[in-house]
Amino acid sequence: xxxxxxxxxxxxxxxxxxxxxxxxxxxxxxxxxxxxxxxxxxxxxxxxxxxxxxxxxxxxxxxxxxxxxxxxxxxxxxxxxxxxxxxxxxxxxxxxxxxxxxxxxxxxxxxxxxxxxxxxxxxxxxxxxxxxxxxxxxxxxxxxxxxxxxxxxxxxxxxxxxxxxxxxxxxxxxxxxxxxxxxxxxxxxxxxxxxxxxxxxxxxxxxxxxxxxxxxxxxxxxxxxxxxxxxxxxxxxxxxxxxxxxxxxxxxxxxxxxxxxxxxxxxxxxxxxxxxxxxxxxxxxxxxxxxxxxxxxxxxxxxxxxxxxxxxxxxxxxxxxxxxxxxxxxxxxxxxxxxxxxxxx
Length: 345
Fold this sequence. Notes:
Largest sheet: 2 strands, antiparallel
Strand content: under 5%
Oligomer: single chain
Radius of gyration: 28 Å
CATH class: Mainly Alpha
Shape: globular
Number of strands: 2
Strand order of the largest sheet: 1-2
């Protein structure tokens, strides 16, 4: 999937705003930054959660699920997708034309379903504490179910994409291949609704009620402060997700139901910004954990301290070793001499 396919543009390229070389460089840097932050940040979150904190709770499984989904986005979707959108040509191997749109769709669906499941769990914990809560076994089953549903509903994006050559083979693009145009349009509208708009209604409703409940409980002396902090982190995660994905999901929906929006001259700039903002969400969760979670913040500082230690100490050690070796090389070789016995030869 690339910019041409998503915008549905069939007109000549000179009718739309063309990016200058400087603008292309800026966009490349912006995409490279969020890709690096997503890969490094989510790798640290997964390492800290699995090997350092080691707390087996319901929320832990959801954090791991979000971490894996965002990591896949940083590895597969961001680095490969942006070049097709910016340069309007597919320079990558043909097999990636199936993998990139599929992984991006799966990662987004996993993130959304994980947030919804987490919201339902927290809602039940706050409002129906007397009833049986989700167990660790149930959380694992839900995680597997989330991946199964995400992989299933995203299959068309992996199957119905192929590399096409235009203009006598000089331009190669990754485009969807479908027998019925109306079917593809219905599928994209359906996917946009279940990936964003319906989940956002559930998330916003659930966390609004949770926030009101916690604010009411905060007036009591026996309120659990850790519960408040957890809710605050989850609400911020959902808010960032909603804001980051809203422009792109709105455009994708309008692109199917009102394709004339693509006739606007600067629609490509709007798409670049919307897509970059959506992709940037994959690197925000590690930052949120660092700012609002004491355990993650402590582990982050520990990792950064180790990195700084090795970055400063190792060069110094190597420098000392190099000086010592140079000193040994400069010293003249001495022949072995026998010490006279009692001063007499």
